[in-house]
TrEMBL record:
E.C. number: 2.7.7.6
Annotated keywords: DNA-directed RNA polymerase, Nucleotidyltransferase, Transcription, Transferase
Protein name per Swiss-Prot or TrEMBL: DNA-directed RNA polymerase
Compositionally biased region (Basic and acidic residues): 439-449, 469-481
InterPro entries in the cross-refs: DNA-dir_RNA_pol1_lsu_C, DNA-dir_RpoC_beta_prime, RNA_pol_Rpb1_4, RNA_pol_Rpb1_5, Rpb1_funnel_sf
GO cellular component terms attached to this protein's record: RNA polymerase I complex
Domain RNA polymerase Rpb1: residue ranges: 4-87, 94-688
Source organism: Ceratopteris richardii (Triangle waterfern)
Gene Ontology molecular function, alphabetical: DNA binding; DNA-directed RNA polymerase activity
Length: 742
């Protein structure tokens, strides 16, 4: 809905600007101010003259209250655009009260987000600056660290200064002004040494620049009426030479602190980011982390396990969208809760079994019929049987045992002990045999059946205790009791974890799943003492393909348990079919091209997609997990992924960052063969102790460098500033040798 309203807003603005204005540019002073760049922008102009459009909070439309209303003046669950935060009015004519309130909500959201993100973006920039401050261009045009390690052989892969790239490929403009350009570069100089071209086997310019210039010259040769006076072969050769010289004059100067420039180019635009996550409403794309959290994942933490891992892979040419849907269905995770049509839980409070009173829980699951499943989803009977036998039943037993153990322990702590008939008989026999023993001092509450009080013997209680000694002793007793309870819980859980071994798949017709042998009857005759393996017993388990029935037996005095909620929770955890690491799969358009369908997965499993090489173009398989790319495809692929992922983050907000800065940071993080984070862990590999101490954890780096007898050669900017020396960058990157006449 939000995307649809944004389309409406764009269409209105396209019709209104610039031809729809009653007073057009340049006679419209507001249009003159925004168009020329004096003040304001197109957004301000449209909000004043046209409409404000859809208001969003955290990337979504205005949320609804518990009553279903966005504001009290609207009806509950009103689906109109205005009730969802769409403002059709403008500032020039004024806003309605409801629209004003919506606009204030969006404004406050922006203010709060700006206040919160300021510290995070500032720390992100500081981490980048401190890690990259040693990178500078040397006289061989390579970018090196303070210890001499090469980060890039050519800055930005072409050596061109970012500030001199605006007109570097504007060949037509440069051809018109070739005389002025020749004068600025100094082509017509009288010095013969400067005029002579140096013979070299290497190209002067980058391959991309050479190909673009070559194409422009071919175009000039075909079009002789362009007015550029470059139709002659000699003129074209001179123009090519001039462009090559212009390229060389645009290269970054030696001593340029390109590391700090790259860090600032990333840190400054990050303050303009607002959303933490991005999701297109009404479409099937996965939620992906963007904004500052994503930049922190890439630069600061170099996380291997990211918060929203996504894989994207297009289909081979000739494959249709139906083929993509079929593959997506095969990869999708199917939980037991997805196929349950009806859930029934019944309780039988009293049931006699072998002379004992038990409580029974009957669980019945009714599954959907085959015709109600999505297309291409063909679930087999053995998948149900395996999920029920090896996942659902053991998990229900384990969860139920855990709840009963906890509740029984709580009742014991409260001084209440529930005894069964068999336990009561055994206790009476013990009391008759021990009549001459010392009287018991601690009493338990009366049994509900015979009303007698049962006493418990305690040691070391003959003397009366008071004061601090009594408090200490009571504390010790409580600690010992707590340790004993934890030990009992651990033992009980060990017994529950072995419950899987008690099942075997029945080969009888009808697909029944039952317990092997006569273990069920034997378990029912065991003692009813509180221990995890005996708290819950299975009476009967049946499965006929469409219905699953299970009967559980517990002690009759067990506290009542809402078993339906537990069954629903466990059903969401049990999987019928899944691919390890992949939770969701959707079909999207590859790079916005509707003719090329692609699969997008939430989660990462390269082997799973490799197995579908007959349908998927695995050579174009991509993921946003840089750590996974590094592990599978190597460091060069990881370096390219860093550049592409950072570009996606900035493109989502309409921010442009020169690729040379991104290439430098990516090369710095991967030049050692791994994925180096820009934090105190990553800076630990730097050779300058003063630089490390100027970042964080001063005492840690100081002690470490002292114990290891490390030297600082004063080659980093921080170490030189600490000792009051000139920084080895810019004009300080060289020394002057002066002849002194004595």
């Amino acid at each position: 809905m939000s995307s649809s309203m944004n389309v409406v807003t764009s269409e209105v603005n396209n019709e209104l600007f610039p031809k729809g204005l009653s007073k057009r540019f340049p006679h419209n002073c507001l249009s003159l101010m925004t168009t020329t760049g004096a003040k304001g922008g197109l957004v301000n102009f449209t909000q004043i003259s046209s409409l404000l459009g859809q208001q969003e909070l955290e990337g979504r439309r205005v949320p609804r209250m518990s009553s279903g209303k966005t504001l009290p003046c609207f009806s509950a669950w009103d689906t109109s655009a205005r009730a969802g935060g769409f403002i059709s009015d403008r500032f020039l004519s004024g806003l309605h009260l409801q629209e004003y309130y919506f606009h204030c909500m969006a404004g406050r959201d922006g203010l709060v987000d700006t206040a919160v993100k300021t510290s995070r973006s500032g720390y992100l920039q500081r981490c980048l600056v401190k890690n990259l401050e040693c990178l500078r261009v040397h006289y061989d045009y390579s970018v090196r660290d303070s210890d001499g390690s090469i980060i890039q052989f050519r800055y930005g892969e072409d050596g061109v200064d970012v500030l001199k790239t605006s007109y570097l490929t504007q060949f037509k403009t440069l051809a018109v002004n070739h005389a002025l350009l020749s004068k600025r570069i100094g082509v017509n100089t009288a010095d013969e040494a400067l005029c002579e071209n140096r013979q070299s086997s290497f190209e002067m310019v980058s391959d991309a620049f050479h190909q673009e210039l070559k194409g422009f010259i071919k175009m000039l040769a075909k079009n002789k009426r362009d007015g550029l006076h470059l139709s002659k072969q000699r003129d074209r050769l001179n123009f090519k030479r001039l462009m090559n010289l212009n390229f060389l004059s645009s290269c970054a100067e030696p001593g340029e602190p390109v590391g700090i420039l790259a860090a600032q180019s990333i840190g400054e635009p990050s303050t303009q980011m607002t959303l933490n996550t991005f999701h297109l409403a009404g479409r099937g794309e996965m939620n992906v982390t963007l904004g500052i959290p994503r930049l922190r994942e890439i630069f600061m933490t170099a996380a291997k396990n990211i918060s929203t891992p996504v894989m994207t892979c297009p289909l081979l040419p000739g494959k249709s969208r139906d083929d993509a849907e079929r593959l997506a269905t095969q990869l999708r995770k199917v939980c037991l809760a997805d196929v349950i049509e009806k859930l029934e839980v019944a309780v039988v409070p009293f049931s006699f079994h072998n002379g004992k009173v038990r409580k029974l829980y009957d669980i019945k699951l009714i599954f959907h019929s085959d015709d109600k499943y999505p297309p291409y989803l063909k679930l087999q009977k053995y998948e149900f049987e395996n999920a029920l036998q090896y996942q659902f039943v053991p998990t229900i037993m384990r969860e139920l045992t855990k709840v009963i153990s906890l509740r029984s322990g709580e009742r014991a702590k409260d001084g209440i002990q529930v005894l069964s008939l068999s336990q009561l008989g055994e206790l009476e026999e013990e009391n008759g045999a021990d009549e001459e023993e010392e009287p018991k001092t601690k009493k338990l509450p009366k049994d509900s059946e015979n009303g007698e009080e049962v006493e418990e013997d305690e040691q070391d209680t003959g003397a009366e205790e008071d004061g601090a000694d009594a408090e200490k002793r009571r504390a010790q007793e409580n600690d010992e009791r707590a340790y004993e309870e934890e030990a009992e819980d651990d033992d009980s859980m060990d017994g529950v974890n072995n419950v899987d071994a008690e099942y075997e798949h029945s080969e009888e017709e009808g697909g029944e799943i039952e317990k092997g042998g006569n273990k069920l009857d034997a378990a029912g005759e065991e003692s009813d003492k509180i221990s995890a393996p005996n708290l819950v017993q299975k009476k009967q388990i049946n499965f006929d393909g469409s219905t699953f029935e299970m009967r559980l037996s517990v002690k009759h005095d067990t506290p009542h348990i809402l078993l339906s909620e537990m069954v629903e929770r466990v059903a969401r955890q049990v999987t019928l079919r899944s691919l390890d690491g992949i939770d969701r799969v959707s079909v999207i358009d590859y790079n916005g091209d509707t003719s090329i369908p692609a699969l997008q997965t939430e989660g990462i499993n390269f082997e799973g997609l490799w197995s579908m090489c007959d349908d998927l173009d695995i050579n174009r398989l991509t993921t946003n997990s840089i750590g996974a790319i590094l592990e599978i495809y190597g460091v060069e692929a990881a370096r390219a992924t860093i550049v592409s992922e950072v570009k996606k983050v900035f493109m989502s907000y309409g921010i442009s960052v020169d690729v040379r800065h991104l290439n430098l940071i990516a090369d710095f993080m991967t030049h050692a063969g791994g994925f180096r984070p820009c934090n105190r862990i990553g800076i630990d590999s730097n050779s300058s102790p003063f630089l490390k101490m100027s970042f964080e954890t001063v005492s840690k780096f100081l002690v470490e460098s002292t114990l290891k007898n490390q030297w600082d050669r004063l080659e980093s900017p921080s170490s030189r500033i600490i000792l009051g020396q000139v920084v080895d960058m810019g004009t300080g990157s060289f020394d002057l040798l002066q002849n002194i006449v004595v």
